[in-house]
Amino acid sequence: MHPRDQTIFALSSGRPPSAIALVRVSGSQAGKIVTALAGKLPSPRMATRALLGNVGQRPIDDAVVLWFPGPASATGEDVAEFHVHGGRAVLAALFAALSEFEDVRPAEPGEFTRRAFENGKLDLTEAEGLDDLIHADTDRQRRQALRQLKGLLGDRARDWRARIIEASALIEAGIDFSDEGDVPAELIAPALAKVKALLVEIEEVLAGQGRSERLRDGLVVAIAGPPNVGKSTLMNQLARREVAIVSPHAGTTRDVIEVQLDLDGYPVTVIDTAGIRETDDPVEQEGVRRARARAADADLVLWLADSLQAAFDHDGPAPIWRVRNKIDLEAARPLAEAGAPGLRSFEISASRGDGVPELIAALVDFAQRYFGGTEGGLISRTRQRKLLEETATSLRRSVAVVRQGEELAAEELRLAARSLGRLLGRVDVEDILDVIFREFCVGK
Ligand SMILES: Nc1nc2c(c(=O)[nH]1)N(C=O)[C@@H](CNc1ccc(C(=O)N[C@@H](CCC(=O)O)C(=O)O)cc1)CN2
Ligand SMILES: Nc1nc2c(ncn2[C@@H]2O[C@H](COP(=O)(O)OP(=O)(O)OP(=O)(O)O)[C@@H](O)[C@H]2O)c(=O)[nH]1
Ligand SMILES: [Mg+2]
């Protein structure tokens, strides 16, 4: 039997041991399996308590069983769920019992979702949303993933695709109609109007989003600066725990240290780096090299200094904020001129916490602007943005070339429809599907 037609099972809940574990089964053998292990087929979609086990053998567990006959199931196939006690031995016994059935095997990562996709239960953008929802750590990530799972991008793309096909049908009708002469304008003009209208909509989605696809990875903020200025102390303040070693010795931090923060629902990775200076110590030299490299790739650099003499020693495309630390030591000094003009400046005491809430508020504000504060982000992956850009490019070309020949315009419309078909996972997808579903969890 082809692996595609085999019945699959997997643990869909977290690592054992857990209070309750959910084992899902999908495929043609699911009904036979439930009947054998639970004694009878429960009413569809009704949670039913059963002592699981094969007749004549010792029971496996006292469980709750659900039965979802296809096609009205999550995968579109017959689905059974066993809600068992989440101990390792319970699961081992259940998996052993499941493996005894013919044409039944453990599922590959993402295989349940892949079957749902193959059976038309969701399109590729929705499947991507599902994966993002499972991996969402912050509330903004959750909201964006849920919008995608609900098909907000998929529905727009389907609508655009249908309208492109309508426009190209008009043009192709015109081409057929006019074997000799020119294509009648009354067919071309409405086709062009349709194309221009939907181009505006796609461009709006592409422009109005900020960088919503970056919401999946999060923003990277690097703390950089000379040794001993309090970078690791600030890191610990932001993390609210002792993630980095702090000491009065210059050159304490050598490796790059990372923490994931949830700043008002935005995912932010803060990295603490080695103090940047000339040094003869080869280990510290390597630390400085890594510090420079990570700061150069960051989305924002917090350049920490404890005196105004400390010059910047950083270049890269990312904005730099100047943060003057240890203001508690300078109480008697007049507030000095802060940093270069145009740079945002903060004054803090990382060890006492003064000024840290203001710095955090500014980071939240930065994240909001960076991701495009609006709640409308439809794009959540580079794959999606690239395909929408390709669609827009083909549409623009079709308008530009129509005077040179209607066939050229029709060809561009076909390319545009194909890009949207790829976005939805309807054309040329085998390779993409493998890549996307491989990243999924087992049991999803
Ligand atoms: N126990 C359990 N909880 C779960 C899931 C599950 O599969 N099992 N889900 C798994 O992802 C999520 C809920 N999503 C689901 C999506 C579709 C269907 C489903 O049966 N769809 C059918 C029937 C639709 C209907 O009548 O509402 C269909 O689409 O035809 C079930 C759950 C989260 N919680
Ligand atoms: N008075 C005062 N001391 C501070 C403050 N922040 C940090 N320190 C002290 O400054 C020293 C260096 O702090 P670290 O956080 O290790 O400095 P760093 O920039 O990470 O240093 P390197 O890792 O060596 O580059 C420690 O003794 C801290 O306790 C502050 O706001 N006020
Ligand atoms: Mg340090």
Task: Provide keyphrases for this structure.
12 strands; 444 residues; binds guanosine-5'-triphosphate; binds magnesium ion; six-stranded mixed sheet; 43% helix; single chain; 16% strand; binds ligand FFO; alpha/beta; flat
Task: Outline the structure in words.
The longest helix has 26 residues. The strands form two sheets. Strands 3-4-5-2-1-6 form a six-stranded mixed β-sheet, with helices on one face. It has a six-stranded mixed β-sheet with strand order 8-9-7-10-11-12, sandwiched between helices. It contains 13 helices and twelve strands. Helix 7 runs antiparallel to helix 11. Strand 3 and strand 4 form a beta hairpin. Helix content is 43%, strand content 16%. The mean pLDDT is 90. With 444 residues, the protein is an alpha/beta fold. Bound molecules: ligand FFO, guanosine-5'-triphosphate (GTP) and magnesium ion. The site of guanosine-5'-triphosphate has 23 residues, from helix 8. GO terms for molecular function: hydrolase activity. It comes from Bradyrhizobium algeriense. Its EC number is 3.6.-.-. Exhibits a very high intrinsic GTPase hydrolysis rate. Involved in the addition of a carboxymethylaminomethyl (cmnm) group at the wobble position (U34) of certain tRNAs, forming tRNA-cmnm(5)s(2)U34. This is tRNA modification GTPase MnmE.
Helix content: 40-55%
Poorly predicted runs are none
Strand order of the largest sheet: 3-4-5-2-1-6
The total count of strands amounts to 12
What composes the largest sheet?
6 strands, mixed
Broad structural category: alpha/beta
Report the sheet-strand fraction. Answer: 15-25%
Quick one: overall form?
flat
Unique bound compounds = the ligand Nc1nc2c(c(=O)[nH]1)N(C=O)[C@@H](CNc1ccc(C(=O)N[C@@H](CCC(=O)O)C(=O)O)cc1)CN2, guanosine-5'-triphosphate, magnesium ion
Q: Could you report the average pLDDT, rounded to the nearest whole number?
A: 90
| Helix segment tally | 13
Q: Write the H/E string, N to C.
A: EEHEEEHEHHHHHEHEEHEEEHHHH
**Rg of Cα set:** 29 Å
Termini, distance in Å? 23 Å
